[in-house]
Write a structure and sequence with these properties.
The protein has one domain: 4-Layer Sandwich (Glutamine Phosphoribosylpyrophosphate, subunit 1, domain 1). It contains 9 helices and 13 strands. Helix 2 packs antiparallel against helix 3. The strands form 2 sheets. Strands 1, 2, 3, 4, 5, 6, 7, 12 and 13 form a 9-stranded mixed sheet that branches.
Length: 310
């Protein structure tokens, strides 16, 4: 049997054991477990890596704890705008959406952009109209509302500050992007990423998550990467593609390339966060320069891990 692997993340940041209740930690881990199960089950049944990463990310989007889909944060104007992307390593085909509203699963819309259009990225109203034409599920504002997210936004309302943290008044910065990477039995890899962005961000702001090469990248020759963190430095350093380049042109291993980018190149431009990766041989890595990252992996060789802290 060919090896298959899935790796997921639910965001990185200052995630401290001392600040987490046992109930909340359990809920986060259950959310990660459900997403891993959704993707791994498909791989086990001979499904594609593309379908597996989409299923895993949709599961995370449906969990209100994570800043993507249902749990998305509020922008400056009180809206909830979401970004997502997906990419297949075999063909280098990709789809992405940015600044979309009311879409239940932005990663599903990104997938349809990839498979049903001649484009890579659609934005805002154009993406929404495309979603309606293709039967993508929408939800009213009430579906995306959580008191927790609303209270965070109210803390910053009327200021020019945009916060990267879940607990805005405290020092607990958590970058709530979600993502998945996978290798299937056919030797193909894929990556997907989804986010609600930053609390009190300028509406219309786009982070790294939907940008191919910045927050998401997949190439069968090298690796599949999904990033989480402060999006602007990740965009400026073309982070996900940088890992692939180090592997392709310098011959670095997945782990070494990810460590160089996360612990050296990103830190030099104040890029806090992390990434997950898998290569075409099934090697997987979860690397971050913050206090923690919600993460997990499951592999056909028996590896099964869910973790939160350093």
């Amino acid at each position: 049997m060919s090896k298959f692997t899935i790796v997921i993340h639910g965001g990185a940041g200052t995630i401290l054991r001392s600040a987490m209740t046992p109930e909340l930690e359990k809920a986060y881990k259950e959310g990660l477990e459900q997403a891993l199960h959704a993707g791994y089950t498909l791989l086990e049944k001979n499904g594609t890596s593309l379908d597996a990463v989409k299923a895993a990310v949709m599961s995370l989007e449906d969990c209100i704890l994570f800043n993507a889909g249902r749990g998305s944060v509020f922008a400056k104007d009180g809206s909830q705008e979401m970004d997502a992307s997906i990419m297949e390593g075999k063909t280098l085909m990709a789809g992405a959406v940015s600044a979309v509203r009311s879409i239940k699963n932005p990663v599903d819309l990104a997938y349809v952009v990839m498979t049903k259009s001649q484009h890579v990225m659609l934005n805002g109203k154009g993406a929404y109209d495309f979603a309606l034409r293709h039967g993508i599920k929408t939800e009213p504002d009430s579906y995306f509302f959580s008191q927790f997210r609303y209270d965070q936004w109210k803390e910053l309302q009327g200021t020019d500050e945009a916060a990267l943290d879940h607990n805005v008044p405290s020092k607990e910065k958590k970058f709530g992007t979600v993502g998945a990477v996978a290798l299937d039995k056919h030797g193909n890899i894929a990556a997907a990423t989804s986010t609600g962005g930053m609390t009190n961000k300028q509406y219309g702001r786009v982070g790294d998550s939907p940008i191919i090469g910045a927050g998401t990248y997949a190439n069968n020759k090298t690796c599949a990467i999904s990033c989480t963190g402060h999006g602007e430095p990740f965009i400026r350093s073309v982070t996900a593609y940088d890992v692939s380049c180090l592997m392709e042109y310098k011959g670095l291993s997945l782990n070494d390339a990810m460590h160089l980018v996360v612990h050296d190149k990103l830190l030099k431009i104040d890029g806090e966060g992390g990434m997950i990766g898998v290569d075409a041989k099934g090697n997987a890595a979860m690397v971050f320069n913050s206090e923690g990252m919600y993460r997990g992996m499951k592999c056909s060789d028996g590896r099964n891990e869910i973790a939160v802290y350093k």
